[in-house]
Structures are given as C-alpha cells and as structure tokens.
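Reviewer 2 asked us to include a model.

Predict the structure of this chain.
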Amino acid sequence: MNETETLRGLIGLARRERGTSVRQLAIQAKNAGFKIVGTTLNAIENGTYKSEPSEDTIRAIGWLAGVGEAVAFAAAGRRVPGPPFAEELPPGVDDLGPAERKAAIEMLRTLVALRQEVDNAQVQEPRTQEGSSKQRSAGSGEEGPGAAMKPGAKPRHLNAAPPAMPTAEQEAELARVREEFKDTVNPSEWTLNEQGRVVDRHGMPPFDEADLIAAHRTTDDLAGMYPAAVTPEDESQGEAPDGGA
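Predicted model (structure tokens):
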C-alpha cells in the first residue's frame, strides 16, 4: 500500500522527510498555525486513535507530509470539505419558525448520515475486494488478479463462447414486431432472446388479440360459445301405429 493512502503512512513519511520525532512534528505544525498535539499524531501512527480526525488534524498531517489537501483527506477516507454551509444559506433563514427550523435540521441530519454511509462504503469496498482476491488465490486454488496462469490455460474471458449475432431475418422480425405493437408496447421492450426469437421484457413472444383470447379460453367457455348441434326428432317416433286393415 502506498504511504499516501493512509494518515498513518503520511505521518511516517513526514518523520522520514523531516528527520524528526512525532513530538517535533506537532510543534512544527503548531508554529505553522495548525491545531494539533503530539499525542494525536502518535496515536494515529500507532493505530490506536479511536476518534474521527478533525479537519485541522488532517490538514496538519498533509502539510507535514508535503501533500495537498485532496491527498490528505482521501487518506482519511473523507471528502475535501467545501465552504462552511452556514455561509451559503439564503437570506431569511433566521425568520423561519420553530417547526420549519426543526424540519430543515432533520432533513440535513438525514443527508449527512447518508453521505457518511456512502463515504464509509467507498472506503470499505477496496479493502473487501482486496481481501476476497487474496482468499481466492490462497484458499480455493483459484487464480487471483495477479496470479500466474497455468501453462496452456486460456484467460477466463476467452473460455466463454461469444453471443451469436442475429441474422438479417431475425432483425427484420424484431423490427416488424416493434412497428406492429408500438401503440400498446414500448418498442424498446421487444428484444431477441438467446434462441433468436422476439420476446418482450417478460420473455413472452408476441401474438395477436385472437390468439390471446383463445389462449385464455377454457373448455366450458368454448362449449358455451359453440353449443352442440341439435338433431331433429324423428317424426315417426311417438306416433301410434295405424289400425291395420
């Protein structure tokens, strides 16, 4: 890991560049107008500092190490702060009533909490990915990002077969369906699946209204729509036989 990626590394860099102790670093920073004490620098370098470093502390460490604020705040996992928020508030905020002030403060607290969650996730993600890569390389036998490939082995991305290109007929059918159903279905929802068939975003193929009705009819529905033909009764049935001569 590069020394400039952590505050601890920046303090070590400052000690070596200036050839002095942590206590003297704090004195030099104080003389330059920074608010910092030697115990804070010592705890950060030893990894025992439990609090969140203040902006003054981060700026002092960056100055001692000879790096800009952007590097120093990135090493602390923080954004470079902008101008004080109070200076950007519009005129008239002091006229807000108690309920309005409470609503504004609660909204700001929520935004600050969300920003802190995003910043923490961005700091943790590279570490998690690095740890996962090491575990795969050492534990499961899989090749990590920097592991040497076995003789004759192909890169993973070359083992998978490339997707088949659609034919002219398939492209024409896709265009036809998009045009035919454009009044009822967004044309962008029609695509070609792996088999080259036109389907919507649910994986269903297109069919016209008659097919839709037929697909949802039951046997009883069909029986009701098309009743069985009635055979005329035989007029000879039920008649009494004529009196024989």
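Residues 168-225 form one domain. Residues 98-138 form the longest helix (41 residues). We have added this to the supplementary material.
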